[in-house]
Amino acid sequence: MPVILRKVTSPADQDHIDLSKTFGELQELIIDDQVVKNTNDHTEQLLQQYGKPDQKWIASAFFNDRIIGAMCVEEQTGQLKLSNFTVRKVTRDRGVGHRLLDLTLVEAKGKAILLELTRDQNVLMKNWLNHYQAEFVSNTASTSLYKIIPSEHEQ
Asked: Can you tell me whether residue 139 is helix, strand or coil?
């Protein structure tokens, strides 16, 4: 499935609809470093928090001009921190998540990637964590943090 990575900082109306559907499929979201039960109100909050193109943005997987996957990206010193990683249920098991992470690793230009996962995501992404040789960093009561170092072919 040919997927294109785009930074979404000023979403169009259709982007709002697609992101609401995409993030709406997560049971929990990480907002302001807190895990919260997901409600329809939270997508707008994420868009406000991650609408700064040089510091925080939403990385979206586009297919046929529609968002089918997304995650929040925060630029930190020497690394990118990713959270709220999701792929629409109707497009899962087609490599969209892998492609989104692969394209993000290329965009990172050698920076380390920190991937913050809620308990639910941690279980779902176990195979991905092994594929990317993610290194466990830390746990809190509600999240786990992993580090992915881009290999030389991804830089």
From this structure: strand
Q: What is the DSSP letter of 88?
A: -
* CA–CA separation, 72 and 36 (whole Å): 15
* Intervals of the chain under pLDDT 70: 1, 40, 124, 151-155
Phi/psi for 125 (5° steps) reads -100, 15
CA-to-CA separations, 36 to 26, 41, 73, 74, in angstroms, rounded = 11, 11, 18, 18
The CA-atom distances, in angstroms, between 155 and each of 8, 39, 134 are: 22, 37, 16
Dihedral-angle region of residue 77 (phi above 0 means left; psi in -120 to 50 means alpha; beta otherwise): beta
pTM: 0.86
- The CA distance from 149 to 39, in Å, is 33
Euclidean distance between CA atoms 87 and 60, whole angstroms: 9
Name the nearest CA neighbour of 61 among 108, 19, 122, 109. Answer: 19
User: What pLDDT is attached to residue 130?
Assistant: 85
Angle, helices 42-49/13-24, rounded to nearest 10 degrees: 120
Give me the domains of the chain, ranges plus CATH numbers: 4-154 (3.40.630.30)
